[in-house]
Specification:
alpha/beta, Rossmann fold, eight-stranded mixed beta sheet, five-stranded parallel beta sheet, 14 helices, 40% helix, 13% strand
Amino acid sequence: MAENSLNLIHSELINNLIQKKSKIGIIGLGYVGLPLSIAFSESGYKVVGFDIDYDKVNKINDGKSYINHLPNSTIKKLKKSKTLYATCDFSQSKEPDALILCLPTPLNKNRVPDLSFIEKTLDSIIPYLRKGQIISLESTTYPGTTEDIIKERISQAGFKVGEEIFVVYSPEREDPGNKDFNTSNIPKIIAGISENCLKAGLALYEDPIKKLVVVSNTRTAEMTKLLENIHRAVNIGLMNELKPLADRMKIDLYEVIKAASTKPFGFVPYYPGPGLGGHCIPIDPFYLTWKAREFDMNTKFIELAGEINTSMPIYVVEKTIEALNSVRKPLMGSKILILGLSYKKNIDDIRESPTLEIMEIIKKKGGVLSYSDPFFEKLPTTRRYQYDLSSIDINQSNISNFDVVILTTDHDQFDYELIEKNAKLIIDTRGRFKVSNKIIRA
């Protein structure tokens, strides 16, 4: 009888998910959680979003978006259809059949994984868990997290994982600002703690996500997400290492990459820049570096790429100093315009943006800073950086007023012809301009 009862819990959950009778709870309404909430809502599920940020919750419930590439009209439509609402009340987590965790996983100052957001969320929802729910972790983390933290904590609360509550890991693959790929059409990795967990996970995601890619266990899924980001970090690190060398050899590295890209096999283009930004590429590789020490191994490529990439803001400032010296000006007291705060073009996201580190170095050396970014009217305050600056307009008068312009993020909205025509000096960290006497690649 007991076994039949457990089978009934599993089959009822799957049936409710497939028939869209289940409410979906998404915890963390940032750049991953909000698009995922929209995908489930548009697929026909009722979704409740959880967040500790009252401002985000209020905006969603007012039918407004706080992420640039997600229009207000989308949120307003879902609010009107009553398929999406948000709350700060975690006691409501007992209502959804599915709880999907889309939480930050930063590093602390010593590059040690900080899972406090996951742990605090578990503290908030475990008192309200019930039999017949599925928990999915989407946050990027080191192999073993789903088993050692999610499963363990739920088991300690008295639930049988795989029989009463079901646990899967399915890492997010968001690429904000990408016009070709979104939450629904990006293939999604998934693995379960058990076969029953996996079946429940497939029932959860199979409608809103077009293609699911099953791997054998949650550790493999966790490692897959890390590999994706390590692959980018290491290859970008290689390009950043080659950039100063190519500069000394008077070779345009961007022309080299463009030429190499004509090979129809065996080469994938990556590009140098002012450093790595975003929540994934600068952080995720060090999750594996940290975990590797448990097995008495060093991840040398990852650590070397990290050193190179984190050194790039200093390189950009050094090139700026050289450029100013060439016109007999010191950095101290020079007027410097930063173009672009975001970590990549055409998005409103400054998480881990190398631009902020470049600005901090320049400020400490006495440079007089201004910035322009179409996505940020005022420079946001972060945990590490505080500025009282507002974005200036790009026009002939403003551009010509600066001693040097540093292009750190190549937003398409910038008028590059106007900038090139009127700037005295340009430091180009993105290969947007053609090198000339007044345009320096960095």
